[in-house]
Amino acid sequence: MTRLFLAALIGLVAVPAPAHDRPAVLTVAQSVDAATAPAIAVVDGFHAALKSGDADAVLALLTEDVVVLETGGAERSREEYAGHHLPADMTFAAATTDEVTRRAAWVEGDIAWVLTEGRTTGTFNDRPVNILTAETMILHRSADGWRIRHIHWSSRTPR
Hints:
This protein is of the alpha+beta class. The protein is 24% helix and 44% strand. Residues 1-19 form the signal peptide.
């Protein structure tokens, strides 16, 4: 499969932040912090656009110099992502269902991090899908609002 949708967890450097700087962990049932809500809305909008097959909406949420890391490879611009994995990512998203199981998000100035863990299920290319996913998105805020500058996806089969 070209894409094991939704998944990240960039090797977040294991240097613990002071407790007051740590992101709040959010679950589906918890409310979203006012500072992180706009960035989380962009991440959720990105996934909704993938699922609906709206390539223009997906691309509008990415910076021109976005870096997308998945399946051991890298796409180093919005144009490169559009010409390579985007079509497969939209097809995969339309064929599967995603559940967010855990999310952490925080904002520092004009940079936001949204870390999402989840599960993706369904059928893709006539094969069952049941994977645990991890995703890191780093966003940058400009005069145009929040845009995704970096995505890292990873996934694995549940134990």
